[in-house]
Write a structure and sequence with these properties.
single chain; alpha/beta; N-(1-d-carboxylethyl)-l-norvaline Dehydrogenase, domain 2; 2 domains; 8-stranded mixed β-sheet; 14 helices; 8 strands; binds NADP nicotinamide-adenine-dinucleotide phosphate
Amino acid sequence: MSNPNNSGAPVTVLGLGAMGRALAGAFLRAGHPTTVWNRTPGKADELVAQGAVRAGTVAEAVTASPLVIVCVLDYAVTRTILEPVAGPLSGRVLVNLTSDTPERSRSAAAWAAGHGIDYLDGSIMVPTPVIGKPDAMILYSGSRPAFEAHEATLKVLGGRALYLGADHGMAAVHDLSLLGFFYSAMAGLVHAFALAGSEGIAAQEFAPYTEAIVGILPAIAAAMAEDLDRGTFSGDENNIVMEAAGIAHIIEAATDRGLDSDVLTAVKNLADRTIAAGHGDAGFVSVIEAMRRPSA
Ligand SMILES: NC(=O)c1ccc[n+]([C@@H]2O[C@H](COP(=O)([O-])OP(=O)(O)OC[C@H]3O[C@@H](n4cnc5c(N)ncnc54)[C@H](OP(=O)(O)O)[C@@H]3O)[C@@H](O)[C@H]2O)c1
């Protein structure tokens, strides 16, 4: 069961990059005795001024708290830091908020299990300024007892602390799926600014128009999910042949203006392969078949 009374429970944060500092700062503001460690010790200075305890070694940091959070560059770094302290970590809860692949999450879980460490894997879905806010979403998977015992403390980092099940890879699967969406959307957005800008339209003048696309995304995601779960990709209202023609216009206009159009060319290739496979009357979501068979 979740323990609502663990405000004030000691926590340790390993890794004080931009995100680790935000996590430790949120714990300090919520009154948790917070021990911190970072390879470059100077990054702890501000946190120490706010009341954090700077550990001289990883072992010292780990033994300071029953709950240890690690947030560094990737799992290779996580492993470098944690391997030597597997003994002291035994019997404690380790929450790894570093981003990496689901395979590495599962392999970290197997390593933790082999050392008697109660392991939760997590993915932070918000940037640093949102850490500590009620709407900050952080996804967790792995040890249910660890999540339930420390849920109240984890909610200090983000009010939307969502547990996705016992498979340690689930947080990373959600993370990478959402980040794939994010980065491809970012590339499309930058391309939009570049194309509009090539005609002298200032970015701030153009930005409000992006709402026309951003605003329809939630409805599109819901409709797409319905189609995917049903397995039917109706293109009655907007078929992919029409959409491919539209994408070709963007590529032509961008190329005429000397702009790179690799992102749109990749989208056009997916659409073309879908049409070539005989699905020209289907909706855009039907490109999923081409994605599932990259060599087709
Ligand atoms: N920043 C964000 O907005 C954000 C949002 C969501 C998720 N995340 C995730 O949070 C994690 C940390 O991101 P960040 O923004 O804090 O990154 P960062 O500012 O680049 O910090 C990287 C951290 O990793 C440590 N590190 C790197 N190589 C190391 C090594 N060989 N040995 C020991 N420590 C090493 C760094 O220590 P030094 O200080 O000594 O270099 C630092 O503590 C990443 O997995 C990232 O994907 C970040």
